[in-house]
Amino acid sequence: MRRRMPDPSPTTPPGLLLATDLSARCDRPLERAKQLADEFSIPLVVLTVHDAPQAPGEVLQWLDGDAGRTQQEGAARAEFAREFAGSPLQATQHFATGPAAAAILDSAATLPGAIVVAGASQHDSLGDLLLGSTVEKLARGLAQPLLVVRQRVRGSYRRIMVATDFTPASKLALETAARLFPGRRITVFHAHDSETLVPDAPPHAELIRFLDGCALPPGAHELLDLVIGEGEPASQLARHVVDNSIDLAVLGLHEESALMRLLTGSRSEYLLQAVVCDTLLVRPPVRHGEDDENEKT
To answer: Record's InterPro entries (predicted)?
Structure first.
């Protein structure tokens, strides 16, 4: 008889932190943040960061110093008021100055447990964002989940997939998905290369053992759809996302990799470029000993 981990209760995040400049390029993450705030009935903090200027008009405002920032904030406040006029959502607006990643990390530290929402340009791949960018720095530094929004909002997340390589990071990814979205079917996806498969450890048996070690809410195990692909993991995962119109992929970040690899043994750069759906990135808590070592280096 198999023994499972004790069942925890579903978890509602205490809030959402949306990093945005309220421009058209941020429409998708804004709409998703509003949808999730309504679904969970939680507060939404909209953070606008004054970073380096990106357009000629912004350069002039930047040169004006405090006066320019005051003008930018006034415009952002007006846009925020129009966006949430008549809305039942509990939304507040915050401002920060400086490098975007540092400002978002500082704000997130004041909202423990909140989901941080960021956006991707429709012309950029997730890989472009995560390699040498603000989102990469957020993925490295955040203690809470990071939701990278790419798709238009068409309702709640219904087609949810968790990728697993049987590591603690992917265990946390599945537990997080099941607690945030109770009562919904979740596809647990594992891909293996047949050339490296150990004969006495068939992938289905290993997947069952992995699931038995996950602490999921009551009834969640019965809502899991198990999919095992054979072949290069990154390409198999990317194909499954497209073929099954996945709304949300939940991926666990590995602590041991300097590049924050998402799946052990896979070409993470290719994986990140190929995943076209919204992506929730979660990472295990950093152990205190590791923090101490990082401070020494």
So the answer is: Rossmann-like_a/b/a_fold, Universal_stress_UspA, UspA
195 and 232 co-located in one domain: yes
Sign of the CA dihedral running 266, 169, 146, 289:
negative
Reported pTM: 0.82
Number of domains in the chain: 2
Q: Is residue 154 part of a domain?
A: no
Instruction: Please write the tens of the pLDDT for every residue from 76-112.
Output: 899 899 999 999 999 999 998 888 889 999 999 999 9
| E strand segments, the chain | 16-19, 44-50, 91-97, 115-119, 146-149, 160-163, 186-192, 224-230, 248-252, 278-282
For the chain, the C-alpha Rg in angstroms (whole number) is: 20
- 122 is written with which tokens? 């429709």
CATH no. for residue 217? 3.40.50.620
Look up residue 211 and give its two tokens: 């699931």
